[in-house]
Amino acid sequence: MFEGIRFFWNATRGNRLRPWRSEYLRWRLETFTGKSSKKVTARDFVALVLNEKRQIVKFLRWLAEMHEYSQGGINR
């Protein structure tokens, strides 16, 4: 869980209260949905989060796994 918070904190640098304005997250939304990053709104951001809950949870689990691996917690 901590890895997810850290990712969100880093990805929204400068726009933490308005994550849909983050250049990084706008770019990720553009590559994921195909919608131009200049047209991304708060509604688009919230809709994506709500519609893709399972993918987000899978991503957060993967982040935790990669963090554990980088710390030497998983046999290499």
Helical residues, percent: 55-70%
Secondary structure: number of strands:
0
User: Sheet bearing the most strands, described?
Assistant: none
Task: Give the low-pLDDT segments.
Answer: none
Q: Could you state the order of secondary-structure elements as H and E?
A: HHHH
Radius of gyration: 14 Å
What is the terminal separation in angstroms? 23 Å
Number of separate domains: 1
Shape: elongated
Oligomer: single chain
Specify the number of helices: 4
On the 0-100 scale, what is the average pLDDT? 84
Beta-strand percentage? Answer: under 5%
| Secondary-structure class | mainly alpha
Task: Explain what you see.
The mean pLDDT is 84. The chain is an all-alpha fold and 76 residues long. The chain contains 4 helices and no strands. It has helices at residues 2-11, 23-33, 42-51, 53-70. The chain starts with a helix and ends in a 6-residue tail after the last helix. The protein has one domain.
Features:
76 residues, mainly alpha, 4 helices, 64% helix
Itemize the secondary structure elements and their pairings.
Layout: H1 2-11, H2 23-33, H3 42-51, H4 53-70
Please provide a brief summary of the model.
The protein is mostly helical. It has one domain. It is built from 4 helices and no strands.
